Each structure stands twice: as C-alpha cells, then as structure tokens.
Amino acid sequence: MKILVAVKRVIDYNVQIRVKEDGTGVVTDNVKMSTNPPDDNAIEEAVKIKESGKASEIVAITVGEEKAQETVRKALAVGADRGIHIKADGIIEPLAVSKILQKVVDKEKPDLVFMGKQAIDDDCNQTGQMLAALLNWPQATFASKIEVKEKTLEVTREVDEGLETIEVSIPAIVTCDLRLNEPRYASLPNIMKAKKKPIEQINASDLGVDVKPRIEQLKVEEPPKRKAGIKVSSVEELVQKLKNEAKVI
Amino acid sequence: MSVLLIAEHNNKEIKSFTLNAITAASQIDEDLHVLLIGHNADEVAKSLSLVPNVKKVIQVDNEIYENYLAENFTPVVLKQAENYSHIVCSANTFGKNLMPRIAALLDTSQVSDIIKVISADTFLRPIYAGNAFATVKSSDAKKCVTIRPTSFEAAQTSGGTAEIIKADTHEAAKNTKFIKKEEVKSDRPELGTARIVISGGRGMQSGENFKLITDIADKLNAAIGASRAAVDAGYITNDHQVGQTGKVVVPDLYIAVGISGAIQHLAGMKESKIIVAINKDGEAPIFSVADYGLEADLFEALPKFLEELNKLNTIQK
Ligand SMILES: Cc1cc2nc3c(=O)[nH]c(=O)nc-3n(C[C@H](O)[C@H](O)[C@H](O)COP(=O)(O)OP(=O)(O)OC[C@H]3O[C@@H](n4cnc5c(N)ncnc54)[C@H](O)[C@@H]3O)c2cc1C
Ligand SMILES: Nc1ncnc2c1ncn2[C@@H]1O[C@H](COP(=O)(O)O)[C@@H](O)[C@H]1O
C-alpha cells in the first residue's frame, strides 16, 4: 500500500501574528515557519502504518514557494520515503491545491491520501474534502483513530456531538485531527539520512492547473481589541462584580 | 438570485445553528430556500416552514439519509444547486465536512467560516485563529459559503408559512458506511448556545476534579467547556473542547479555570461578552482578555465560588 501525505508550510503556531499596516496580509518576514500541526499527525500516522507492515511507501507532498521544501524534508526525516514539491508562489487556494493533488494522485496512484484537517493560517478546512470530491473517493475527515483493515479503513471522527465511526473503502482520503497520535521528533541520524532522500520538483504551471485565486483578499485587519479588565482580590468581590456590575448572574 | 441553505437536523429537530445560518443567509439574499435531506423528518420540515425568513423548504426523504454522510448528501445538493447563486450552511463539523465536497464539484472556491455579510459577494472571516480578520470577495459565479453560527443571531421560529416541496433522492454511496455515533447526552445547555460557559483546563489535574466545575455549572445552568490539554489528558470528552480546532462560543459569561490562554484557546472564546479567569499564575495570558481576573488556586477558589453563589437568593437563568 502506498500513502501520499500532504504537508503545508505555515507560520509556526507559537508565533503571535502581526497584521501588516497596509492591510495586505500578515507579517511573514523573519517569522518562524513550521509544518501545519495536524499535517505532522498525518505523517506520523502514515509512518506508524508502514511500521506495522501495512504500507510499503510514503510520499510527502507540498505545494508552495521554494522554501516549502523544508516541510517535505522534515517529513522525510520522520519516515517518509520520498518527496514531491509543487512550486507555486502566492496564495494557493484549497481548490487549486486539491486540483494539483488530483493530478499527482492520477500519476502516483496512492491507496490513501492523508492530510491535516485544517491549515492554521487560512483556517479553511477544505482541501481534503475537495480532493475527495474531485477523485470521487470517500472522505474520512477529522480522524482521531484509524484502523486499517483488508480493503477498508475504520475511522473514528471527532464531530460536534462526540465521536462518529465510519468505514471507507480504499482508496480514500483521511484528514487528521491533532488527537490522532503523538508526532515523533526526528532524530539527528534520520535528519542526516533525509538529506539524501529524493524530492522531485514540479512547477504548478506544468501541471495545467489554473492556480489563480478566485477569492480576492480586499483587506486584512486586526480584530477589535478587548477593553482591559481588572483583577479582583477575592471570590466575594468576583461574585459581587458579576452580579452588580456585569449583571450576568 | 436565490440562496440555498442546507439544514442540519437529527430527523426530529432542527439543530440550533441552522437558525443562525438562516439569519446570515437571508442577509445575502431574502429569497432563501432550505434544503432538508433526511429520513422521516416531516416534523423538521414543518418547523423550518414556520421560520419567517425561509421562503421555501425542499425536502428529500430516504432511509439512506438517516445518518448524515457527505458522500450521500453531495449529489442531492448538486442537483438543486443550478437554481441558486449561493449554497450555504453552518461552519460546524457538519458544514465543514460537507460544503467543500460540493464546492469542488461546482468548481467554486469556498468561503469558509464567515462572521459578517458585507454584500452578496464580500464577507468578513477570521484567519490565523482569529488573530486577523480578512475581508474577502468571491469572483465565482456560484458561491459556497459556510457561516460561523455564533456570529449571527438565531432566526425566529414562528410566523412563517413557507411551502414544502419534495425533491428527488439519489443512490447511496457505495464506498462509505456509517457505523455508529457516540453522542454525549446531557441535560445541560449546549456549549454553542449556552448563556454561561465554565471551562476547565490542565490546571484541573484530573477528570474527578471536574466535579468542582460541574457543581458550579449546575448552579448557573451553564454549559461545560475545556481546553485541548484537558481533553487530551482524558479529563473530559472531545465535544467540550473550545478553540481554534474545537468549538467557538460567545456566551454572556465565560469562566476559564486553570486555563493558560493559548491563542488557540482564545480563538474559541474571546468574543464572549464577559470573561472571568481563575488562575494561580498572575502572568497567564488568559488575564489579558479577562474582564475579571482572579489570581488564586482553583481548588480553593471554586468551592468558595459555589458557596458564594449559594448565598445569592436569585440567580438569573
Ligand atoms: C494547531 C493547534 C490547535 C489547537 N487548538 C486548540 C483548541 O481548539 N483549544 C485549546 O484549548 N487548545 C488548542 N491547542 C492547544 C493550545 O496551544 C494549548 O496547548 C492549550 O490550550 C493549553 O491548555 P491549558 O491552558 O489547559 O493548559 P496549560 O497551558 O498547561 O495551562 C494550565 C494553566 O493552569 C494553571 N493552573 C495550574 N494549576 C492551577 C491551580 N491549582 N489553580 C489555578 N490555576 C492553575 C496554570 O497556571 C496554567 O496557566 C491547539 C494547539 C495547536 C498546535
Ligand atoms: N499548499 C499546500 N500544500 C500541501 N498540502 C496542503 C496545502 N494546502 C492545504 N494542504 C493540506 O490540506 C489540509 C487542509 O488545509 P485547508 O483546507 O487549507 O485548511 C492541510 O492540513 C494540508 O494537509
């Protein structure tokens, strides 16, 4: 079985975002970048399945600028076998990413595609479902548990009401939740080894996919700030304030 | 131009977030039709027809829609889509799972999780866990939009007289099978719509200690929330998680107990009207968004809090 894993390079989740003064976006210069967190879970799950003997190859893929390659390199260091970097600059919307991934799936013919449930920069939560639609494959989104069976996967999904279990036949798309597993760190020897693993680079334009954004970002601004609050010195004072000042209890 | 909204329901009742989405959808265009896909859901159709903002209810009934699978719903929506300029639903796990599947097949770039309708093609949406707001304009002919329910009032539920029409079903998807849903049933108000929410974090130290929180929730008729750390540690189930990858809540009163206030948690609660933080670390970032901060050990503060609440002879419900 072959697993394709999509990883996106995003601003590190610990960075306090700053909005550019001219309203065109957020500051990315000299800002720490990392793999989108749930994409680390996607890689980890693929590696675990390979370790259990149920998968033979893991291919990590990213779509983005030159530096996005680092994200693929990191995936190689934790256990992916080879990488693909589709080069494209600027904002590539989930629809375009999914069309690109569709082309790659047609060529690579993986049995499973693992992705994150949501990119923490655009917070779109779309790409996996879109790819599943374009391929007419089943989708198991927001996965917190995956059981690989003969020709199917049994997936536990995190939904608003609690947990849902579905069975999807292979080939399938899975989008991963953070609770799926505990991503491992790359060991130094594995980081060294990853440097020798191949990464194929392809220009998005050579795939015949129109990546031009359909959504124009007119303005990016800071959210309204909250008024500074106060510290109370006791529980009694807190309850009094809630009752008489805020009038919420 | 008309808007088609996909209703979320459990075949007996409309899910409350659908009512918030109805409000947003009718701001896009007043000619709002609701698509109800389900099984034996006549009661739901009836109550949707009573919502004044709804102009028509399109009901699709088949046992294959008893449980909701995006693979089964999508072809039904696509069949209806040609008559509409906008397809919308709420941005909860229902809509997030379903809408992109529809959008891709309509070759539309979806606008996710809007918090404001600026015009029929322009919307406001949070990005980077709500640390920035983007005004975005869609150039697609047909627009697929999901709506952050807590940013819109719930629509009224009586006085309307929409007609209910039946529409065709589609064959069931072969490659996806529903197995089970483990729903956490509770008598407490729903997290997404409760007037008061009290949440516990890693500082609670154990699932048993959450009793300190439940006692207060009972007293205040509040819903119970949690940080991801508390869910990950197994203190409480995932449906309680508030934040960027959990639920967004906007109650009148949000009480964060033993929660540090990571940006991913703030993303889910910082629009609350009044925020209270109880934390023993005076430097915890949660205090920067709290209207009232109490620097204290929660194991002393919570029992005392309950005691003080018990002294109040009236508590607003
Ligand atoms: C991609 C991504 C998405 C995420 N999504 C979410 C999300 O949706 N929701 C979410 O909550 N988190 C989310 N997180 C995790 C988030 O970054 C934090 O790790 C998490 O919110 C921390 O939870 P916490 O505040 O309970 O724990 P901690 O940060 O460990 O804080 C515990 C707090 O309890 C206080 N405390 C301890 N003991 C006591 C005591 N006896 N009395 C009083 N106070 C005490 C401490 O001072 C501390 O401030 C996400 C992370 C990532 C990377
Ligand atoms: N540019 C990209 N390159 C690789 N994977 C991506 C890219 N954009 C999105 N993805 C994948 O799709 C998931 C969901 O992203 P989104 O739909 O943008 O929230 C991410 O977690 C990734 O796995």
How many helical elements of chain B?
Answer: 8
Structural class by secondary-structure content of chain A: alpha/beta
The mean pLDDT of chain B is 96
Termini separation of chain A: 58 Å
CATH-defined architecture of the largest domain in chain B: 3-Layer(aba) Sandwich
Number-wise, the strands of chain A total 13
Description:
In chain A, helix 2 (69-77) crosses helix 5 and helix 3 crosses helix 4. The radius of gyration of chain A is 21 Å and the shape is globular. Chain A contains 6 helices and 13 strands. Chain A is an alpha/beta fold and 249 residues long. In chain A, strand 4, helix 2 (69-77) and strand 5 (82-87) form a beta-alpha-beta unit. In chain A, strands 9-8-7-10-6-1-4-5-11 form a 9-stranded mixed sheet, sandwiched between helices. Helices cover 27% and strands 31% of the residues of chain A. Chain A has one domain (2-244): HUPs (Rossmann fold). Chain B has 2 domains: 3-166, Rossmann fold, CATH 3.40.50; 196-311, TPP-binding domain (Rossmann fold, 3-Layer(aba) Sandwich), CATH 3.40.50.1220. Helix content of chain B is 25%, strand content 26%. In chain B, the strands form 3 sheets. In chain B, strands 5-9-4-1-2-3-10 form a 7-stranded parallel sheet, with helices on both faces. In chain B, strands 13-12-14-15-16 form a 5-stranded parallel sheet. In chain B, strands 6-7-8 form a 3-stranded antiparallel sheet. The longest helix of chain B is centred in the C-terminal third of the chain and has 14 residues, at 298-311. The model of chain B has no long low-confidence stretch (mean pLDDT 96). At the A-B interface, helix 3, helix 4, strand 7, strand 8 and strand 9 of A face helix 3, helix 4, strand 5, strand 7 and strand 8 of B. Flavin-adenine dinucleotide sits between chains B (201-203, 227-230, 241-246, 258-260, 262, 264-265, 268, 279-281, 284, 297-299) and A (13, 37, 120, 178).
